[in-house]
Structure formats: structure tokens, C-alpha cells
Design goal:
single chain
Length: 122
């Protein structure tokens, strides 16, 4: 059983996510190759080739989209394109902390609390 926390996930799971994203994008790109025109197919062969290419493209988008959605859930919309780019380039999804407020450090015993800054007037 795996967790939703990327810090706890094993490294092979990060590589699997990147592999699925790479595979999905590759299938989508391959679906755009004009196979019927290259081989000069006409009629029913051309239509069958187009149907197969559309199916391959949709499968590719589904694979890559599912992995990208997982990245978005983990790190948020702002950081997702960068993480996806790293996954495509390096072949592994880097372990990241989910977005949110940074943890507040525990107060030091005996320390004087700092005075808050006045709000800036812009």
C-alpha cells in the first residue's frame, strides 16, 4: 500500500510516474505522425490508420494526464509544470513537499518574542 506523501513513497514509484508520463507523451506525439500519407494508403486503409492513431493519441493523453494530475494534487498548479518538466527530462519525479504554510518553529524557552512589523503602506 502506498501513501499520498511523496516523501514516504519508494524511489521506484517516482520513476514509474515519470515513465508513464513519458510513455503518454510519446504515444500522443506518435499519433500525429502521418503514417497513411507516408505509405500512400488510400480509402479504407487510410481511415483505419486515422482511427488507430486517434485511439493511440487519446490513450497517450490519458496516461500523461493522469500522471500530471497526481503531480498537481501533490505540489499544486504553480509548481506542477516545473516538476513535470523535470520528470520528463530526468526520468524521475522529484520528491517534493506539498504546498502550504511553512511550519512555525517552536519557541525557544526563555527567549523574548519578537515584535511584529507594522504593515507596509503601499
Amino acid at each position: 500500500m502506498t501513501s499520498d506523501d511523496p516523501e514516504r513513497d519508494p524511489p521506484h514509484k517516482h520513476r514509474a510516474h515519470a515513465l508513464m508520463m513519458r510513455l503518454g507523451i510519446t504515444l500522443w506525439i506518435v499519433s500525429w505522425v502521418p503514417v497513411a500519407a507516408i505509405f500512400g494508403w488510400t480509402g479504407e486503409a487510410r481511415i483505419a490508420t486515422w482511427i488507430v492513431q486517434v485511439v493511440i493519441g487519446v490513450i497517450g493523453l490519458a496516461l500523461a494526464g493522469r500522471e500530471f494530475a497526481q503531480i498537481v494534487k501533490t505540489v499544486g498548479w504553480r509548481r506542477a509544470p516545473r516538476i513535470a518538466g523535470v520528470a520528463l527530462w530526468r526520468g524521475s519525479v522529484p520528491a517534493t513537499n506539498p504546498p502550504g504554510p511553512s511550519p512555525v518553529p517552536a519557541p525557544v524557552p526563555g527567549a523574548v518574542p519578537a515584535t511584529p512589523r507594522p504593515p507596509s503602506r503601499r
